[in-house]
Amino acid sequence: MEIKSAALIGVGAVGSYFAYGLPAKLGDRFCVIASGKRKERLEKEGIYINGARCPLNLKTAQKAGKVDLVLVATKQTALPEIMDDICALVGENTIVLSLLNGVTSEEIIGNEIGMEHMLYSLMRIDAVRDGNQMELHFDRIAGVFFGEKDHTEPTERVQAVLDLFEGTSVRANFVPDIMTDLWLKYVSNVSQNLPQAILGVGFGAYKDSEHVRAVATGLWQEVVQVAAKKGVRLPERLLLFHGTVKEARFSTLQDLDAGRHTEIDIFAGEMMHMGKEFEIPVPYCEYTYHMIKALEEKNDGKFNY
């Protein structure tokens, strides 16, 4: 099995990593999917990676047709509006990598196109987005991690993806237990992405303040309980992101800083849903959800007093 064509949906901080790395391998057989006003904006304004404009081979999904690999790099809130594009790109043997945060996007997409097309995946990236300007810290980017559910050795599909990224700037990593890795990233996002967004502080606050750390610990423990009901065993003790600088501001705080809506629904919101499903109280997640929703309202101008 060989991947000869690929399409990317979404060119934010995550998508730009692939927009930068894959053209050297695939040439014009790699494209970025866009249509309407979004396509016009990208054609006019483009995206810049570390100050340099990144060439984009822009196509509508209909013009691109069936491809061997689809990379989904939007936010999860955009899934309903891009689902038709995903369906248009998927052929009989197409592989789909959903690079979104959270633990539900694979099932959401798979319910539309068939789970047989999905590989479970996650990103570990150090990047900052300001409009169409992307700052990628390549030396601190671990890359994309992926695997098959219930397969501890690379399958033919996994190997095809590894072969594609070989020789590019994209760091690709096979994970034998991808479901645990997905939940480890999820619990880290819930416990460390969210408290700093409420407080407006860098990552160092988790180490320097027992109170910030206490909030992170409460969130962590709630996710551990829910994950156990899903059959995933997570460490009981809070694990802080390794090797992160004190000034680091993660995606939720970056969104609030820029006046954008956040992904709170797939973090604390999804936890509230799963907590209700399993009858597990999640008070830290509920409080955090409403606090960040209120900060979004403040950014929207609902109140300025």
Automatic annotation (TrEMBL):
Q: Looking at its record, which EC class is this enzyme? A: oxidoreductase
Give the top-rank taxon of the lineage listed in the UniProt record for this protein.
Bacteria
GO molecular function terms listed in the Swiss-Prot or TrEMBL record: 2-dehydropantoate 2-reductase activity
Spell out the NCBIfam families in the cross-references: apbA_panE (TIGR00745)
Cited function: Catalyzes the NADPH-dependent reduction of ketopantoate into pantoic acid.
**Stretches assigned to the Ketopantoate reductase C-terminal domain:** 177-296
Similarity-based family: Belongs to the ketopantoate reductase family.
Q: What lineage does UniProt assign to this protein's organism?
A: Bacteria, Bacillati, Bacillota, Clostridia, Lachnospirales
**Which biological pathway?**
Cofactor biosynthesis; (R)-pantothenate biosynthesis; (R)-pantoate from 3-methyl-2-oxobutanoate: step 2/2
Residue ranges constituting the Ketopantoate reductase N-terminal domain according to the UniProt record: 7-138
EC numbers for this chain: 1.1.1.169
Please list the reactions this protein catalyses.
(R)-pantoate + NADP(+) = 2-dehydropantoate + NADPH + H(+)
Can you name the source organism? Dorea formicigenerans
> One Pfam family from the UniProt entry?
ApbA_C
What InterPro entries would the database entry show? 6-PGluconate_DH-like_C_sf (IPR008927), 6PGD_dom2 (IPR013328), ApbA (IPR003710), KPA_reductase (IPR013752), KPR-Related (IPR051402), KPR_N (IPR013332), NAD(P)-bd_dom_sf (IPR036291)
> Mind telling me what this protein is named?
2-dehydropantoate 2-reductase
What keyword terms does UniProt attach to this protein? NADP, Oxidoreductase, Pantothenate biosynthesis
Q: Which GO terms describe its cellular component?
A: cytoplasm
Q: Which GO terms describe its biological process?
A: pantothenate biosynthetic process
